[in-house]
Amino acid sequence: MVAGKIMEIYDKDIVVSDIDLEFKISPRDVVDLVSGDFGLYVNEGKGRCFPWTYVLAGLGVYKRNYSSMSFLEDVSSFVDGVFNDEESCWMLDQVALEYALRRNENIPFSNLRELGCPLSQFSNRPQRRKLAKSFLIECGEG
Fold this sequence. Notes:
By secondary structure, the chain is α+β, with helices and mostly antiparallel strands. The protein has 5 helices and 6 strands; from the N terminus they run αββαββααββα.
């Protein structure tokens, strides 16, 4: 992951999201909602029975601070470890976030779900996929 490096280079807070999220407010305003060192979309109702159900990987807000950098380094090292071992890992992004959260349990973070973070997924995702595929074919990539 390059999120920590991007944060260092630009000296800014960062928002990491799935490509199909639609923000109802500016991502800058989403950052302002976060009172903790970083913000994750946590699914409290599912509990922590499985490592891929607790932290949803679709949205993360990372403020430019030591805690966020430490958290992102743990995410990155977990992902690198899986790729370097050539292992398969189901829901790798969410498992890596859960791993990093457990390693940084004492760091205050904000649950973006509880903050009512105003966003949704695009409702016309199949149309967007079709458009993206036709673009790739046009470019000789598909």
